Each structure stands twice: as C-alpha cells, then as structure tokens.
C-alpha cells in the first residue's frame, strides 16, 4: 500500500488522524494552492503564518523519520503527477467549505481520497434532529451534544509507528517564490502553538470574567491555531477539561459555536452568498460610508480604533467584531456581505463558516441571529467595556489626552476628533424601519 498524506488545515503531528491511519509507504505533502494564493495580497499575514507552520510541521515529521514535500501548484496538477508514481490513496482531513468540497471531488477522480474528521469535533452530516432536519438554533444544537461537551476527554489520534517514507526529490519554494513578502505577525503568533495553549491554561479560570474586556488579553487567542490546525479542537478540549476548572464550561461552549457555524454552512451552503433568512433588505449603497468604516474614519472612536487596529494586525477581539459589524449593517445599513468580504481578506483566523455565520448573526439575517431591533450603541459599548478608553487611546493617538468620559458620549468630542458620519438615533430608527419592512414583505 502506497499512501499520500495530504496535510491541509491540520498542520500538526499530535492528534492527527492521517498519521494514525497511515501504514507502510507514505509520502507526506503540503500544497501551496495557486488557486488560493493568487487572490491574496503580497503581504498577507496568513501566508507568513502558514509558511512557518508548514516548515515546523516538516521538522516534526522529520523527527518521526518522515518528511514533508512542499509543492506550489494547483492541487490537480500535483496529483496528476503523483498518480504516475503508483499511489493507492490519499489520506487527508475533512474540509467542509465550498471550494474544498469541489477540489476534493476533482482529486478523488485522480487518486481515491480518504477523509477524516480532524478540524472539527463533530461531523456536520450527523447530529440531525429527530425528524431528520438540521438544527437551526444554537442552544438545542448544543444541548443535543451534551454527551460530548460534558465528557472529560475525547479520544485523540495516535501516530502509527509502522510507516516508511517514500523518498521523493523536490525543492521547497521560498516565501518569495510563492510571490509573498514576510509579514509582521502579532507577538502572540511568534510563539509556538503549544505555548499559546499553555498561556491560556493560566487564564481559563478568569475567561468568563475577562472575555469581553477587549483591552485585556482575556481570551485564548487560539483562533488561528484552530483555523490552520496547528492545534486540534480535540486537544484544546482535552487540555482545558483536564484543568478541571469550574469556569472552563464557558470556554467549551464557545468551541461549539464554531461547530454550529460549520454545521449551518454545511447544511445551508447558499448562506455563503445569500441571507440565510428569507428576507430582502434595502441596503444602502453609500460607498463613501463603507470606505470610512474600512479605514477607521467614521468619527465614532470605538469603531475607528477597532478597524485601525484590525487593518494593522489582522486581529480583532470578538466584542469589537460584534460592535463594528452591528455598526456597519445597522447604523450604516450596509450589506453584511461587504463587511464579511473585508474581514475575509485580512482576518488572521478567517474561517468561512464562522465569519459568514457571525456576520449574518450581526445583520439579523442568519440562523439564530440577533433580533433586528437589538442594535449595539457603540458609545455605550465602549463606556461599558473600555471605561478608561485604554484600548481606544492605544490606537488613536489624537485622543491620548482627552478625558475618557467624552470619548463615550456622542458629539462630545467636538473639534478634538473628526465628526461622526452618522447620528445614532437617526440611523437606529432607519435600520428598524428597513428591517420591519423587509420582514413584512418576506420574499
Ligand atoms: C463579525 C464576526 C466575524 C467573525 N469571524 C470569525 C472568523 O472568521 N473566524 C473565527 O474563528 N471566528 C470568527 N468570529 C468569532 C470570534 O470573534 C473569534 O472566534 C474569536 O474572536 C477568536 O479569538 P479567541 O480564539 O481568542 O476566542 P476565544 O474567546 O478564546 O474562543 C475560543 C475559540 O472558540 C471559537 N469561538 C469563540 N467565539 C465564537 C463565535 N462567536 N463564533 C464562532 N466560533 C467562536 C473560536 O474557534 C475561538 O478561537 C467572528 C465574530 C464576529 C462577530
């Protein structure tokens, strides 16, 4: 038996099913997919992160007596060449997004593909309601999985020692040969995934208390590891459960939001490009408003700080994502798809299902989304979660010496800051009217 081990979003050796299922002669590979890379910016931070993670994976595989052969091509071309070498099958982890599903179908016609659940805790095909229909609301979905969420440990994949490397000659492309420049990553991403997980072990007790306070480093920062599989969801689950801290359940629940959005996108693939709910909203086409939101020049300090920080680092705290998405879809009445695409281009932990699900949540168009009349007031949000304006001042130097109280009051900054592009009351009423109309005129 000759197998190709195709690493994709499972860039690790611990708890990796393809290393468990592999036997006899194996050829581990990673493909920098031209179809994906060609669309990205030359300084895309994610490519730097993946590039380093792939080299680290190669080192780990070498320590097992294996190796990693790295290609830069479209996957189809790679497998057409490898098929000539007499491989029997390709082992890889399941990937549920629409591009991956199409790609895998194509590869399966060249060499049979075996996929294993490795990037998520549950297979979205399973876990339907009793009537055979998928869940559409998070709480019952989560409750139906209590057998899993309440367990102490989920079995992890073990490495099969009975593997022999298939030797192959190929040159590893440099980052520059892939067409990219090395980008500056946030400090926490310069650590190893295991160190990030260790850091979070220290914080988990306070997670429930701190997770919304965006000037504190209160969350796990494991989104990027989950996205690219430098840590598996099972091992994160196990490590946190093992601590046996009473507050760890709050964190475990969040991991299931990730499962929920993957499940929703799998069962409702049209929601990638359409409102999940059957409504049509008269979105504003104001391009200038959208540009100001993108650049962090709306005149609303918390929005501007969040967006400027995001543009620089590729990261945004969950609470800030909720505030800026609500502002875009409700106060500016701009289509969630524009915000979703803007995030998709830059977000280090970008994941189609979580991003689409969360944007539709914010726009009140999605499964189990926020009611349309619940509109965040960004000033009240910053007063509540950044009272001393620590985060805002750290990003917007022109507000450094301004009294924090003024920052949280609409119109109070006068000539100390650019004026707001939108009035809160007017824009709130406009959004409620637009959503009411859309609801009454369901398409
Ligand atoms: C508009 C918007 C867009 C978003 N886009 C993405 C995205 O592209 N990719 C992404 O992984 N998350 C996305 N999220 C969810 C959430 O903001 C991030 O998962 C979280 O900020 C990552 O930081 P963390 O790892 O420190 O989170 P923690 O609070 O430590 O959570 C741990 C893990 O649980 C999962 N998780 C937590 N909250 C959510 C949530 N609300 N929805 C889904 N999964 C969650 C993530 O995998 C996260 O890494 C989005 C949220 C909003 C409001």
What descriptive keywords fit this protein?
single chain; 443 residues; alpha/beta; Rossmann fold; Serine Threonine Protein Phosphatase 5, Tetratricopeptide repeat; DNA Cyclobutane Dipyrimidine Photolyase, subunit A, domain 3; 3 domains; six-stranded parallel beta sheet; binds flavin-adenine dinucleotide
Question: Could you describe the 3D structure shown?
Answer:
The longest helix is centred in the middle third of the chain and has 20 residues, at 248-267. With 443 residues, the chain is α/β, with parallel strands linked by helices. The protein starts with a strand and ends with a helix. 40% of the residues are buried. It has 3 domains: 2-118, Rossmann fold; 120-154 and 192-267, Serine Threonine Protein Phosphatase 5, Tetratricopeptide repeat, CATH 1.25.40.80; 287-438, Orthogonal Bundle (DNA Cyclobutane Dipyrimidine Photolyase, subunit A, domain 3), CATH 1.10.579. β1, α1 (17-21) and β2 form a beta-alpha-beta unit. It has helices spanning 17-21, 34-37, 45-63, 75-83, 98-108, 138-144, 146-149, 193-203, 207-210, 223-228, 233-243, 248-267, 287-295, 301-313, 318-331, 336-346, 352-362, 378-385, 390-395, 404-407, 424-440, and strands spanning 2-7, 24-33, 69-73, 89-93, 113-116, 163-165. Strands 1, 2, 3, 4, 5 and 6 form a 6-stranded parallel β-sheet that branches. The model has no long low-confidence stretch (mean pLDDT 96). The protein has 21 helices and 6 strands. The radius of gyration is 23 Å and the shape is globular. It binds flavin-adenine dinucleotide (FAD).
